[in-house]
Amino acid sequence: MSAKTIVVLGGGSGGIVCANELRKKLGGEHRIILIDKDEEHTFYPSLLWLIFGLRKPEQIKRSLRALTKKGIEFIQGEVTEISTEKKSISLNRQNINYDELIISLGAELNTKAFPKTPKIFNFYCLEGAKLSGEAINNFSNGKIVIFIGGMPFKCPAAPYEFAFLIDSFFKNRNIRGRISIEIYTPETLPMPTAGPQIGNMLKQMLESRQINFNPEYKFKSVDEGKIYFENNKTADFDLLFVVPPHTAPEVVKKTNLINESGWIPVDRETLKTKFENVYAIGDVTTIKLPGQYKTDKPLNLPKAGVFAHYQAEVVAENIVKEINGQKPDKRYSGNGYCFLELGSHKAGFAKGNFFATPSPSVAIYSSGKIWHLGKIAFEKWWLWKWF
Ligand SMILES: Cc1cc2nc3c(=O)[nH]c(=O)nc-3n(C[C@H](O)[C@H](O)[C@H](O)COP(=O)(O)OP(=O)(O)OC[C@H]3O[C@@H](n4cnc5c(N)ncnc54)[C@H](O)[C@@H]3O)c2cc1C
Fold this sequence. Notes:
Low-confidence stretches: none
Number of helices: 8
CATH architecture of the largest domain: 3-Layer(bba) Sandwich
Helix content: 25-40%
Strand content: 25-35%
Radius of gyration: 21 Å
Bound molecules: flavin-adenine dinucleotide
Mean pLDDT: 96
CATH superfamily of the largest domain: FAD/NAD(P)-binding domain
Number of domains: 2
CATH class of the largest domain: Alpha Beta
Strand order of the largest sheet: 5-2-1-9-21
Largest sheet: 5 strands, parallel
Structural class: alpha/beta
């Protein structure tokens, strides 16, 4: 058996799990190289706590260099080319050949359409989350708008969790009555892939907290105090928190790995792309679900860390089996779960199978402190387990 070089692109949720699992299960003669443009891994679910002063950046970041002590080679650099023909990738003016390639490069946030003003914030990145926190802290009167700039976007629950946390923050300050909170989204219901029952339940939870939910609003443009939508309606704001439109990273868009969706289609159970020895996992993929709801269009698997994590385990195990001459028979089942922060140290929890037919089968559990504690425990485990 010859020594193999396995290259993992991206040190986010999918990439670090995949590199760790490969290293744990493969003999030391095989090289595992992880590449990321950033030196640090950020645990994104904790951004929402960071906004409200419950975390500091250093508490939710880990250096990817720490992986080297486990025998994973880490290279910091921007991948500029992926050649499935030459079986190589390029970065920092060097080429690296691979025997197996795992692409977990996530989604890029397109912030170009949003002017840089003290009223508009991208709370989906670390720097934007810090600034969002400062703005909320200094706000005492007026209209807050949370706006989802396009679909698909990662973590379908996050904008709603953010709305619940804003509501709770101002209630604790006894000034909630002076502040209105509105959500504008191109979705028909919150978290549409989880189904109409959960979507309507979330909508009611928003309404019961006087958070106005405005569905089917598609973005046209924005200026310093107003968003313009395709339906010719507009929305004023004093503070605007944006989920910027997502695309695949530039380097992926240049390849012939993507399809008309702009993302990488993969076999939903093996995560194989159309090229030999090339896998893609996590947010950079597009995965059609076998089921759908009665009146809806075909559904895609949402973008979330939990899916990237499970998919990474499947890919790692199958690569190891193949290298060891065994049948690569591990399959991704479509399972996923999500905590839903509600404020006041409470959270909800949803769990299900997205590959179920005739429609995804997702259950939501009653909210309580236990799920909030569960989310904290998961954060601690994640940052300990992989670094
Ligand atoms: C506010 C917020 C809350 C969230 N909460 C949850 C949650 O509670 N549960 C959940 O499941 N998910 C949550 N998510 C979503 C989750 O973070 C993502 O779905 C997950 O990180 C996707 O993993 P990934 O490996 O596909 O991509 P990522 O984790 O985004 O990793 C991609 C990596 O690729 C690197 N990269 C990109 N392009 C290049 C390049 N050209 N060269 C080199 N490196 C490159 C990036 O630097 C990055 O490190 C949340 C996201 C946000 C923003």
